[in-house]
Amino acid sequence: MAKHRRIRPLSDSILLEGRNVWTVNANPGVAIRGESLRKFRGVEHRRWDPNRSKLGAGLLRTRNEPSQLLPQPGSTVLYLGAGHGTTISHLHDHLCGSKNRFGGRLVAVDLAPRCLRDLTHLAEHRPGLVPVLGDARKFDAWGVLIPSRVNWLFQDVAQAGQVEIFLSAVRRFLSKDGIGLLSLKAASERHSEGGDEDIFAKAIAQLSSEVELLEHINLTGYEDQHALFVIRRR
Ligand SMILES: C[S@@+](CC[C@H](N)C(=O)[O-])C[C@H]1O[C@@H](n2cnc3c(N)ncnc32)[C@H](O)[C@@H]1O
Questions:
Q1: Which of these, 8, 74, 137, 212, could form a disulfide with 232 (CB 3.0-4.6 Å)?
Q2: Ligand 1 mean position to 193 CA, how many Å?
Q3: Residue nearest to atom 26 of ligand 1 (CA)
Q4: Which of 156, 166, 228 most suits a substitution to test ligand 1, by most atoms within 8 Å of the C-beta?
Q5: CA 26, CA 189: separation in Å to the nearest integer?
Q6: Domains of the chain, with CATH numbers?
Q7: pLDDT by residue for the chain (234 residues), tens digit each?
């Protein structure tokens, strides 16, 4: 007999079904990275793979209400280190929806031209997604695309100095009380005698000196050597 898992909505476009997260596909019929497509009440959803997305993993790992990790649908948000668009696509389902019916704007920055090519292709079918070829550290070059502060900012750049890059972006782009999420890859930082735990402890101290640290989510099991820090700007 089929096992029935509890289904609960996290937003108009996101469902939690047991340990699976699904988003309403804003581009029906198309899977981005071979993820499962499935209909719930006649509406096509895509499975958000937590092993390929730190935000997806964070939704399953957080000790708080998962929807608190997400931006308001229809808002403008900034995502640094967009990669090939795996997480971006699910975020777009939530923030913008099909034909951008929610009116959101997802500014997705990456410095790799190969990533930009994929993001640009994605944006052709996902209005509201704005791919930007740029360096998260040099926001004078692309910051004009964000004329007013955002309430939600995500960073996943996997390069040395992740906390400094994040705090600079928070200062420049995040509004007061806005939520920021930093995906920190320990292996990208300078080697520390104290190992990953020391790197995470230093990050906590650095973040806490400037912003309110709401949660430290350990992603081990989904993404080893990674943590997700959730902050609120004071
Ligand atoms: C781990 S991948 C991002 C994966 C993506 N966030 C996802 O969940 O689908 C890290 C990305 O950061 C980008 N990156 C590294 N340093 C950067 C920088 N200074 N500015 C912008 N992007 C950067 C890399 O090109 C790479 O695509």
A1: 212
A2: 26
A3: 83
A4: 156
A5: 36
A6: 50-232 (3.40.50.150)
A7: 556 778 999 999 999 999 999 999 999 999 999 999 999 999 999 999 999 999 999 999 999 999 999 999 999 999 999 999 999 999 999 999 999 999 999 999 999 999 999 999 999 999 999 999 999 999 999 999 999 999 999 999 989 999 999 999 999 999 999 999 999 999 898 877 888 889 999 999 999 999 999 999 999 999 999 999 999 999
